[in-house]
């Protein structure tokens, strides 16, 4: 099974990871990638670099970031391969532990719906 871990952060312009955090994250990413558990991961640029596209009753609107109503934003993601939600949560706990008390973050972990043909799932 694959799982998506969405990393939620409070968006600020001055929060930069320390060298310790970067070193420990790179070590963890290397370990999990080599084990076939971490399939992909990346941080996201601030919401000011993005946009939201919304469809309401067939009307499509685009709103450029940043988004004033959003206190927390998705700051990054990881796609994990695990046999169960418990396994995916254990990996996510390790990710949070590396951050220590440097950052206040939250991860939402959800299974990815797999299509029978292996292609794109539902939109």
TrEMBL record:
Superkingdom classification of source: Bacteria
YCII-related domain span: 1-94
Annotated SUPFAM superfamilies: Dimeric alpha+beta barrel (SSF54909)
InterPro entries on file: Dimeric_a/b-barrel, YCII
UniProt cross-references to PANTHER family, sorted A to Z: BLL0086 PROTEIN (PTHR35174:SF1), BLL7171 PROTEIN-RELATED (PTHR35174)
Family assignment from sequence similarity: Belongs to the YciI family.
Name this protein carries in UniProt: Transcriptional regulator
């Amino acid at each position: 099974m694959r799982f998506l871990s969405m990393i939620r952060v409070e968006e600020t312009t001055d929060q930069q990871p320390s060298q310790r955090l970067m070193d420990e994250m790179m070590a963890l990413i290397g370990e999990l990638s080599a084990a076939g558990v971490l399939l992909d991961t990346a941080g996201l640029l601030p919401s000011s670099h993005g946009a939201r596209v919304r469809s309401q009753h067939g009307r499509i609107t685009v709103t450029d970031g940043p988004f004033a109503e959003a206190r927390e934003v998705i700051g990054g993601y990881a796609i994990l391969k695990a046999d169960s939600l418990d396994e995916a949560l254990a990996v996510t706990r390790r990710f949070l532990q590396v951050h220590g008390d440097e950052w206040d973050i939250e991860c939402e972990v959800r299974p990815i719906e797999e299509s029978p043909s292996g292609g794109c799932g539902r939109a």
